[in-house]
Amino acid sequence: MNRYDRVTAALEPPFAVVDLDAFDANAAELVRRARGKPIRIASKSVRCRSLLERALALPGFAGIMAYTLPEALWLVSQGFRDVLVAYPTVDRSALAVLAADPRAAWEITLLVDSPEHLDLIESTHPTTRIRVCLDIDAGYVALGGRVRAGARRSPVRTPAQAVTLARDIGRRRTLRLVGLMAYEGQIAGVGDNPPGNPLLARAIRVMQARSTRELIRRRGRIVQAVRNLAELEFVNGGGTGSVEKTVRERAVTEVAAGSGLYHPRLFDHYTGFRGTPAALFALPVVRRPGPGVVTVLGGGYHASGPPGPSRLPQPHHPAGLRYDGNEGAGEVQTPLHGPAADRLRIGDRVWFRHAKAGELCEHFDTLHLITGDSLAGQAPTYRGEGKTFL
Ligand SMILES: Cc1ncc(COP(=O)(O)O)c(C=O)c1O
């Protein structure tokens, strides 16, 4: 029986836990890597109000990077401050609420990358000026566009394009440009040390080194050009996988990070840092179909992203369990193979890690909190508070 089995013996699986000691250690590691620049917490990767509050209470964390405007409005109504909605919104109802609420408009910043976004915000006739942040494409492009790494998001890529949009914002009396954001997902979200594939690892490192060099120049020039037109309060970049690299850029004033707090499986293979798995879920063994195989209840918690094995939860404890090739992580039942299966009895638990961070919270109402050898309470997830924003 492992420590988590002992501590949670009274709970009925399926349930999810967050190890607060690991969470705090991961937070401290993010702060160390950020070297004095503030970390804006990516709330999508936490999706639990009290854990957002826990991290924000630590020196080194400041502000929220939210994923929808309804979420941002809710967070502000709950006392959170300085909330950047990091993805464009076309939610007219939420925009109307923002436009009519000066306090929310004071705390919330909307992301824009096109005149259509500006038109939409203006169409709600805000009573106070709405804070906006310009999103810059930080992807890596080579060979005249034939090679591309990074997220497909903003069409704004050059200093000239950024200046054009910044001028457009400047002409609109209801908008105020307060920030720039450029998320280099090809560095922050791609581990540079994939196991068992040295060629791929080398290719990733070469791409990331080139992308870093290109971005230092381009992001620097964009920030300089836009600062001539607007008083920027922040320039946001990076994510869990790139914190120590992103903060080295002078143009960047803050980094974003969230996944690093739970340290899910997709962040296991980076050379620059190590984290401690802090979020796990336990499923009960409900059958023993034969030698070397057990079946647990539920488990089909695939992560978003390109479909494939990397998006599956990882059987974590006991070690050495693997999925059935035909069934994978199942909707209501998941068979698991391996020698460890023969030591499991019906009613025992198997512990898993999710591939990503906050998505786990869409499957559970509650996170049971563990410190040392005891249960320290529980915290509702967003879902547990009836808030399923995405
Ligand atoms: C805009 C933006 N910034 C930062 C991040 C990094 O978040 P995390 O630290 O959870 O990987 C993401 C993740 O997708 C993002 O979309």
How does this structure look, described?
With 390 residues, this protein is of the alpha/beta class. The chain contains 12 helices and 19 strands. The chain has helices spanning 3-7, 20-34, 49-56, 69-77, 92-99, 102-107, 115-122, 159-171, 185-188, 198-227, 243-246, 259-262, and strands spanning 15-19, 39-42, 61-66, 83-85, 108-112, 130-135, 140-142, 147-149, 175-182, 234-237, 254-257, 279-290, 293-297, 314-317, 322-323, 333-337, 349-353, 366-371, 374-380. The strands form 3 sheets. Strands 1, 12, 13, 14, 15, 16, 17, 18 and 19 form a 9-stranded mixed beta sheet that branches. It has an 8-stranded parallel barrel with strand order 2-3-4-5-6-9-10-11, surrounded by 5 helices. A hairpin with a 4-residue loop joins β7 (140-142) and β8 (147-149). α8 (159-171) packs across α10 (198-227). The longest helix is centred in the middle third of the chain and has 30 residues, at 198-227. The model has no long low-confidence stretch (mean pLDDT 97). The site of pyridoxal-5'-phosphate (PLP) has 15 residues, from β11 and α12.
